[in-house]
Design brief:
Length: about 300
Amino acid sequence: MLSRHSDQMQRAAQAFDDLLVAAIFRKWAAIAADTVRPGRDARLLDIACGTGVLTRELAARTGDPGRVTGIDSNAAMLDVARQLAPRIDWQLADATALPFKAGSFDHVFCQFGLMLFDDPEAALGEMWRVLRPGGQLTVLVFDELDRNPIYEAIAGVYEEWIGPALSDSLRAAFSLGRRQDLASLFDRSATAPARIEGRHILAEFASVEALVNSDVKGWFPFSGIVLKQEVIDAITADMTRCLASHVQDDGRVVFRIDAHLVTVDRPATAVRSGQSIGEDVSPKSVFPDTDTSAIRPLLN
């Protein structure tokens, strides 16, 4: 039974890479990678890497896969990632408890994972902890659902045929879309000032059926959802109607996806009361006369 379940998850992860990555996430990977120009010995970390589309892009740009690490909490996703790029360092890990020493990486990335973590603030604290002074953090999150109305329409179809739990899960991907909320989250995580820019891509699916299959095969199995073919056919028919204005003459479905690109530079040094602070930026070192027992260790 365990093997059968593992095989199902492996197929789902492969479908995710074949269908969703190809239609959406590969374009975002180039945008995220463009935010840095890594030095010769720079080390890069991709958090919530999935099947590794951004991780592979980073490895290609550095020319040395051994300097790039991808972590994810989904073992099936990592299995596919390893098959696609065996020389990259792939690790199974929780984003809120990264298995790395402080300051281990020159550049840290998280592409469309932050809004799905149970504790985004803790995850950001961990990203900051493993980022060396002078390094850069790059994060992508989807913009508000109002700015991505096609997904509201898609969620509505899934809610009608499958139920609110699944549609709510889809809407959750846009939970950090309000720019004010996103900025506040970064402020609370005690990082340096964040730069938030609006970016967009055009998603391209070969057909409405391909769009539905990308979810049915590449997402639903991870939520424990298996549908009968007649339900899939009914969903596809409804989706064809609600996405009609986005269907091209050749049958392709093309629509815009808006997101926020967040970049944060970690200062090479921090100064407080005339004290120069480099690697040691723990609460105790910054506030030597303060009881820091109640302060969450954000930076070390």
